[in-house]
Amino acid sequence: MNHFYNFKLAFHALLARGQRDFDFKCSKFILENAVLLKRYPVSSIAALSALLFTQSVWAADTLTDALTGGKASANLQYRYEGVSQVGKLTANASTVRLRLGYETGTFNGFGAMIEAETLKTLGGDNYDSKANGLTQYATVADPEATEVNQAYLSFSGVANTNAKWGRQRIKLDNDRFIGNVGWRQNEQTFDSFTLVNKSLPSTTLTAGYITNVNRVFSDNSLTPTVFTTAGNAKMRSPIFNVNYKGWSFAEVVGYAYLLDYTDTDDKFNLFSTDTYGLRLNGSAPMGGNKLLYTAEFASQSDGGNNTVNYKTNYTFLEGGIDITSAVFKLGYEVLGTDTGANTKGTTTIVQKSFSTPLATLHSFNGWADMFLTTPAQGLKDTYVSAGTKLAGFNLEAVYHDYRADKTTVIQISNFGTEWNLMATKAFGKNYTIGLKYADYKAKGIAATTFATNVNTKKTWLWCEFKF
């Protein structure tokens, strides 16, 4: 993998070049106080704020203007989700979420943001939220909870640079590796420090350090030590992303995500990984239409305290055409597996597949959410999609064919197929309604494919107000 070694060297050199434009006095202050956020990711915000405010003498009226001249935000969403799944009682979840936030203006480059959300169930509690104990029902991962969604300090006093410290939303590229899981009522946010710099022409450099993931299952999760349903996941994870848009035909992205989970319960460390990748995404005119194309490749190996020694790859290819009245796409995504992986310190051979635990997983591999965890055999997803607009409604249809990347003697390669349908309509900038459907048809049985491989149907109906 010499090409990836060279990429890593170039990647770090590019970061170093951008770093020379930063204000080192601010960076030194932030790093000296890093222990606060590592130990107290939310409560440390108040303490750090006090430290920052002592660094300068500010005129009260100017500070008041910054505090009172900010921007309020609100998001109110009702959603019904019905799930019919073999082996479970049919779930019917009717929930409403209210999210309120306020972002201050800036003073001497400093600002702050606070956002809280509450999620309540309407009517009967007839679904497994992973926080209510109703495991006889199919899962709808929208638990009742009231939480601080975001709370951070920001600094933009250095040219072309913005730093944030605290609980924040992070979305990189198409959310395939790091995203906010915005589809769920309780979104995913990160206790982290992030730095975004745009000093280089057409280039955005993002660097961050994540100490905790506030997951969709909330602090009320009944299984906080089980990785697949834990409400929090503590880690020490540097992330880097370089996005270049200087070419007319495509944007190019290089990234390095070095995830290191510190929890030892339920094998959290199996998701500690080092991932390096390259992504190209663009379009080109073709007559009166537009040609669409995306290509991405990433290499992943065990990182941090992972107890399994493995290496595997990720490949994504997508082509499409935009004919103004409709958009058609054909895609192929492979999350590979290493059939020669071994448990460290032993000769035990295991299968270990490519994982993306911080992704907005609902957006990939079908809306039925059958592949939130990549099967041990890996996953090949071939899909075709079509989208258009009719009477103000955005319409979309997607068909997926799922197969294993590699199989053992007792495994079969065909996982199943899935249809996805969606219609949404926006009324101005503030109102949206939507209807969505997923139908997954399993092939084979759990013993020859993966544990949760059963027929599943899901229906959603929602309306949203925001400003």
- N-end to C-end Cα span: 48 Å
What CATH calls the topology is Porin
Overall structural class, as computed from helix and strand content, comes to mainly beta
Q: In CATH's first tier, which class applies? A: Mainly Beta
Q: What can be said about the biggest beta sheet?
A: 18 strands, antiparallel, barrel
Description:
- By secondary structure, the chain is mainly β.
- It has a single domain (2-466), classed as Beta Barrel (Porin).
- Helix content is 11%, strand content 48%.
- The strands form two sheets. The protein has an 18-stranded antiparallel beta barrel. A three-stranded antiparallel beta sheet has the order 12-15-16, with no helix packed on it.
- A hairpin with a 3-residue loop joins strand 19 and strand 20 (431-442).
- The longest helix has 18 residues, at 2-19.
- Residues 10-60 have low confidence and may be disordered.
Task: List the topology elements.
Blueprint: H1 2-19, H2 24-32, H3 34-39, H4 44-53, H5 60-68, E1 71-85, E2 91-103, E3 110-121, E4 145-155, E5 161-168, E6 189-197, E7 203-214, E8 232-244, E9 250-258, E10 273-286, E11 289-302, E12 308-309, E13 311-322, E14 326-335, E15 337-343, E16 349-353, E17 379-390, E18 393-403, E19 414-427, E20 431-442, E21 456-466
Antiparallel strand pairs: 1-2, 1-21, 2-3, 3-4, 4-5, 5-6, 6-7, 7-8, 8-9, 9-10, 10-11, 11-13, 12-15, 13-14, 14-17, 15-16, 17-18, 18-19, 19-20, 20-21
List key phrases describing it:
18-stranded antiparallel beta barrel; globular; single chain; 467 residues; Porin; mainly beta
